[in-house]
Amino acid sequence: MVRVPNLTRADALSAVRNPLAFIAERWTPTTRTVRRAALAALVMSVVIVVTGGAVRLTGSGLGCPTWPKCTDDSLTATSEMGFHGAIEFSNRMLTYVLCAAVGWAIVAARSQKPWRRGLTRLGWAQFWIVMSNAVLGGIVVLVGLNPYTVAAHFLLSTALITVAALMWQRTREGDGAPRPLVGGSVQQLVWCLVVAAVLLIAVGTVVTGAGPHAGDSSEVDRMHVSWENVAKLHAVLAWIVVTLTFALWFVLKAVDAPRGPLHRTRDLFLILLSQGVIGYVQYFTDLPEALVAVHMLGSCLVWIGVVRVLLALRERPEIVADVPGPATESALTRA
User: Does 200 have pLDDT greater than 80?
Assistant: First the structure.
């Protein structure tokens, strides 16, 4: 049995002053552990979006009518609040699970040897986005599910997914200077794809804000635009993204690009096709709740796919420290 060292007063003060540094001095995670921590944060950032969609689709957006408490008199949901209160309060509790996942990613990145400051900063960026979105979520409740605040809530969640995906990718790379794997014209095509995907997601929030799923059974204000026209614009943007993705795959094949960008583009194309099928089915079947939830999951996967395609355009090697050779060592010895 390994003996646990005694905690001295100096150790306790050090832990209070800088707990991350205290942990880092006593724990060195493996590379696999750091990657799993970053992946857990990414998975939870997607889960919180899907469960937030479940709150809306079940009409439970005001299941807890106030914030930060669930009611004016109770921090938690009560039995009188029924199903909707339980759904909304459970989604709020998942925020703590998300915080735990992000916290694990921060601790693992800070404790890795050598310390990669960039990874730690990406972890802290996720933390502050989560805190900001929690406050924004409270504002959404306090303003009665105003559709514009709901859209901002989703877009900030998408920003969280972006940073989490970036951190996960960075755990699989070194800290050397990025080296492009494709030419400038291919990079420009990918950036066009990124812009189109951003517009697709933004217009998707308008479709939701103008659509029938208001998020609560009470009278909730909607975006005063034609839902069908916005849905058609959303479909056009989706086809633009699909076309750009197929064009990118064709160009990468033509220029004999490395397997990384090619495979990630293929994966994105398959996700887009699946998402398109779901989108059209839900449109022609009057937006059944189950399909809308799957479509929201698909939206997260599409954006992760786009980010991964963008990041696959370059490689970042490990930084190799200069090791003195035999001649240098002899010169140092003589000196």
Answer: yes
